[in-house]
Specification:
Radius of gyration: 22 Å
Shape: globular
Oligomer: single chain
Structural class: mainly beta
Mean pLDDT: 91
Strand content: over 45%
Low-confidence stretches: 3-23
Number of helices: 2
């Protein structure tokens, strides 16, 4: 069944269900809830001159995002939700979005915050607290675990969302089951971009079991079948453990994750790749210290682990959105990192983030370089957030030196 037929049947099922409940809804007292949020951000992205970057090519983006939502509670179990987002440029607009006509500055670094207005979410939801069940049909934001494989990309001004049907149920206190069908992705670059939308016939599932004072064990599958972006079609299956154990006055933190990936659908590439994440740390007072090791595997430029629905990981310069290749025999990504996050000592509303990275090739001996992330956030009264973050990349055999920094402020009404 192709994605169009699947989506039509999914939509028809939702309409039929709504019609069946219409009489009950008509008799109910419909309650409405409204809200809005605004976020301003100035982002500066500078990369040293290389073969693709002209001298003095520094991108500067000054953007404001306005989100407006309305929620209608139709009866005890049924509700509807609509979320609109608008992004506008203010003061500075010297940055590159290469897939949008009129917002392209060749050679300048990419800042993926296009101007425009979109429907971010519009779905009908069924919630039953007695059975710990939630079902959503329509356009919605979807986040799988930590967002490494499916993400809302919430840092970017235009969030990523999906035309989808999702369901979540907890048949036991410690067990949660999630399933989703994805018919289309609405990417952060917006509907005007040539790569802003992609149709698909994709599925995902996640099984999570909580062990008190130990952690959470998860098993998941992400089965992507794109209609036109054939090289993004892949089946991924993985296991993930998120540990959080008491250790005297501290807590022992750990993350263990392994996933394997093969090609799917009409993907012309042969893929047999692995993903590995090992992380250990301690929570001491209000600060979490972590050491980590991450492999995004690759044996060639086409046989490599891909994450086409994720936001960037491994550094705030966002250079590693795609799994890299360097030359004929140097592919994939191996990362060692150390981080510390938490409250600034002596404060309650000011938090910090710092991380150091060492990047190398997974296949072949190549040093990609090093990275540094620094960040501060102040969460004040009246739902206000002020923040700064800074990403630095010191290149070796891959890319060129880069610096990306942002100042931002947000308020929720």
């Amino acid at each position: 069944m192709n994605h169009t037929s699947s989506w039509k049947y999914l939509s028809l099922a939702g309409l039929c269900g709504t019609a069946i409940l219409a009489a009950d809804i008509a008799l109910a007292d419909i309650t409405m809830e409204y809200g809005a949020n605004v976020r301003y951000r100035y982002e500066h992205f500078d990369r040293d001159e290389d073969a693709t970057t002209p001298p003095g090519a520094t991108s500067k983006a000054s953007t404001v995002r306005l989100g407006v939502f309305a929620k209608a509670k139709l009866n005890e179990n049924l509700s509807a939700f609509v979320d609109l987002e608008a992004v506008e440029q203010l003061f500075e607009d010297d940055y590159n979005i290469p897939t949008i006509p009129g917002q392209t500055i060749p050679g300048y670094p990419v800042i993926a915050d296009p101007q425009g207005t979109e429907v971010n979410q519009a779905y009908v939801a069924y919630n039953n607290a007695a059975y710990n069940t939630q079902v959503r049909i329509g356009r919605q934001e979807v986040m799988l675990n930590n967002g490494r494989f499916i993400s809302t990309s919430g840092w970017r001004q235009n969030h990523q969302s999906f035309n989808a049907g999702t369901a979540s149920v907890s048949p036991l206190d410690n067990l949660k089951l999630d399933y989703g069908y994805l018919a289309r992705v609405q990417r952060v670059v917006g509907s005007e971009a040539s790569n802003g939308r992609a149709d698909m016939d994709s599925h995902f599932f996640n099984i999570a079991y909580s062990i008190p004072d130990i952690g959470i064990v998860k098993g998941y599958g992400v089965l992507l079948d794109f209609d036109d972006e054939l090289t993004n079609s892949a089946d991924t299956f993985g296991l993930r453990f998120e540990g959080n154990m008491p250790l005297g006055t501290m807590r022992l933190l750990s993350t263990l994750e392994y996933a394997t990936q093969t090609e799917a659908g009409d993907n012309p590439n042969d893929i047999d790749a692995q993903y590995l994440l090992l992380e250990a740390g301690l929570q001491i007072s209000n600060i979490a210290y972590r050491l980590g090791y991450n492999i995004v595997g690759a044996d060639s430029a086409t046989d490599k682990f891909i994450t086409p629905l994720a936001h960037p990981f491994n550094g705030w310069t966002e250079l590693f959105l795609n799994n890299p290749s360097l030359g004929a025999d140097k592919h994939g990504l191996e990362v060692w990192y150390a981080s510390a996050t938490g409250k600034v000592p002596g404060t309650e509303q000011l938090t910090f983030t710092t991380a150091l990275y060492d990047y190398n090739a997974d296949t072949g001996s190549a040093s990609y370089g090093n990275g540094l992330d620094l960040g501060l956030e102040y969460r004040g009264v009246a739902n206000t957030l002020l923040g700064w973050r800074f990403g630095l990349y010191d290149a070796d055999e891959l890319f060129s030196d880069a610096l990306r920094t942002s100042l931002y402020a947000a308020h929720t009404f």
